[in-house]
Amino acid sequence: MRIRIGNGLLPINLLVIALVATVIFFPSGILQIILGLPFVLFFPGYALMALLYPKKEVMGAIERVALSCGISIALATFIGVVLINTPWGIGLYSILFSTTLVILVTSVGASFKRQRVPLEERFDISFNLNFPQRAGASEPD
C-alpha cells in the first residue's frame, strides 16, 4: 500500500495548532516538550524550504531535512532578535505566537507556490507499506 502525504505541510500545521492548544490549555507538561522541539528546530525551516524549493529535482529528502534544521535554528535566532526589541520581549507566548505566525505564513505561501508547479515535478512525501503475508494467503489481483 502506497501512502502519499503531499509536501508535509498539513501535518506540520496540525501539530503547530496542537502545540498552541497544549500550551494554552495545559500550561506544563511533557507534551509541550515533545511538540515544542520540532516546533522550534524543524517546522519553520521546513515550511520555508517548501516555499523556496517546491520542485523535487532541486534536492533530495535528506538535504531538505538537514537544511530545514539549520534554517529553523537561524529563524529562531532571528525571531529572538526581533522579539527582544519589542515590548513583548522573549517569553513563552511571544515565541509561540511569532513562530506559529512564521510557520503558517510560509506554509500558505508554499501551498500557493506549489499549485503553480506541474504535478509530476512537485516534491511529495510518499512511502510504501508492505505487510507480511499470512501463510496460505493468496496475492491480491
Name the descriptors:
5 helices; single chain; 141 residues; mainly alpha
Structure overview:
- With 141 residues, this protein is mainly α.
- Helix content is 62%, strand content 6%.
- It has a two-stranded antiparallel ribbon.
- It is globular and about 50 Å long.
Please bin the fraction of helical residues: 55-70%
Radius of gyration: 18 Å
Strand content: 5-15%
Number of strands: 2
The number of distinct helices, counting runs of at least 4 residues, comes to 5
Give the low-pLDDT segments: none
Order of SSEs: EHHHHHE
Largest sheet at a glance? 2 strands, antiparallel
**Kindly state the mean pLDDT as a whole number?**
81
Shape: globular
Structural class: mainly alpha
Q: For the terminal residues, how far apart are their CA atoms?
A: 13 Å
Widest β-sheet, arrangement of strands: 1-2
